[in-house]
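Bench notes, afternoon.
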Amino acid sequence: MDRFLSNAVNRIDAKGRVSVPAHFRAIVQKRGYTELYALRALAEPALDVGGPDLLDRYEQRIAQEDPFMQTADDMSFFLYGDGALLKLDQDGRIGVTDFLREHTGITSQVAFVGRGHFFQIWEPERLRAHGEQVRARLLKMRQAAAGQAAGGAE
């Protein structure tokens, strides 16, 4: 399967590098990425990470906007100003730069979480708390849908 699935937490080494999880590296290699594009997530303290196809997808969205309107300008600023290229070394490690640390709060460990066509980088405790919030929201939606279905059956 050619999707980023699951999650893992890896330690930052003494040289300030972290290994991308092996199952993520396999996808990166299969897709032929030599560097990764990272964008600060808009609503969470995380980075969205993928290859050139992730950047292409965002650029296609900007191209749909009127280039003279504020929306296109804001999107371009966000895409390029809040993004960075991450170099993968021969052992599948990336440097944990200030760019990564500032937005995520990462200190000594990095959490990687699959999001299908891309993955995210988080500070592990923030990811844990976010996961709890996501599950709570989904459970609330499920319960509301079950209540509506039961109310309609009467």
